[in-house]
Amino acid sequence: MSERVGYARCSLEDKQDLTAQHEILLGLDVPEDRIYLDHGLTGTNRDRSGLAQALAAVRVGDTIGVPKLDRLARSVPDAGDIGDSLTAHGVKLSLGGNLYDPADPMRKMFFNILATFAEFEVDILRMRTREGAVVARAKGRLKGKPPQLTACQQTHLVQQHQSGEHTFADVAELFSVSRATVYRVLERHQNAPAPATPGGQ
After folding, report:
1. I need a labelling partner for 120 at 20 to 30 A (CA). Which of 20, 127, 192, 199 fits?
2. Residue 94: left if φ>0, alpha if ψ -120 to 50, beta else—which one?
3. Is 196 left (phi over 0), alpha (psi -120 to 50) or beta?
4. Checking DSSP bridges between strand 92-95 and strand 35-39, what pairing results, if any?
5. What integer pLDDT is reported at residue 89 of this predicted model?
6. pLDDT number for residue 55
7. What are the backbone angles phi and psi of residue 66, rounded to the nearest 5°?
8. Do 71 and 9 form a contact (C-beta atoms < 8 A)?
C-alpha cells in the first residue's frame, strides 16, 4: 500500500513559515506523523536530518510531497539529483500537489524552470549580501575584528616581555591571549616609528 510523506524547510527559525508549510502538506493528505521538518538550514545544504529522514521513509510506490521545490533544493544539480533518485526508486514527487514526471517533457521542463529560479534567488541573495558588505565597509560600518588588547594592555605586555622575566607562554597566559597575539603585539611595537625628540628635525 502506497503512503505519503511530507517535507518542509525554512532557513530561519520562522515557526510561522513552517506552520504554513505544515498546513499545506496536511492539505495534501500527508499524515501528521509522516511530515519531516528542517529549520535553520538553507536549501543549498544537502546535509539535513529532516530531509534524510523523509527520503529514507519512502518506499516504491510512495509519494513524497513538498510545498514548493525550493523547500527541497536550492540548486539545479541538487534538485535534479533528488528528483532522479526518487524516480529511480519508484517514488513519486509532489510539488504543491503537482506530480513531477520526468517522462513528461512539459512537467520536466517546468521542474527545471523551478529549480533554475530557486538557484537564481540564492545567487541574487549572495550578490546583494556581498554588495551590502562592500558598501558598509566603505562607510566604515565593518571595521573588522576588534583588537583583543587595549593600547594600554599592549604597552604593558611589551614591558613584561622586555623585562626578561617572562617567556612568550607566560605573557600569553598572563593576558589570556594566544602566543600568536603576543607575537603580533611585539612585532607591531618593533616596527612602530620612534617617537620624535624635542627640537628634532
Report:
1. 20
2. beta
3. beta
4. unpaired
5. 93
6. 94
7. -130, 145
8. yes
> How distant, in Å, are the alpha carbons of 45, 118, 149, 168, 171 from that of 187?
41, 49, 14, 13, 15
Which residues have a catalytic role annotated?
11
Distance CA(187)–CA(33), nearest Å, equals 61
Q: Is 101 left (phi over 0), alpha (psi -120 to 50) or beta?
A: beta
What span, in angstroms and rounded, lies between the C-alpha atoms of 171 and 162?
11
Alpha carbon distances (Å) from 199 to 193, 196: 17, 9
C-alpha distance from residue 49 to each of 7, 74, 144, 169 (Å): 11, 16, 34, 43
Write out residues in the chain with pLDDT < 50, as ranges. 201
Please list the alpha-helical segments (H only) found in 10-63: 15-27, 49-57
pTM of the entire structure?
Answer: 0.60
Question: What pLDDT was estimated at residue 57?
Answer: 95
Paired with 94 in beta bridges are 65, 99
In the three-class reduction of DSSP (H, G, I as helix; E, B as strand; rest coil), residue 104 is classed as coil
Cell of 195: 617617537
- For the chain, which residues make up each domain, given as ranges? 4-134, 151-191
Pairing of strands 4-10, 35-39: parallel
On whether the 4-134 domain is CATH 3.30.470.20, my answer is no
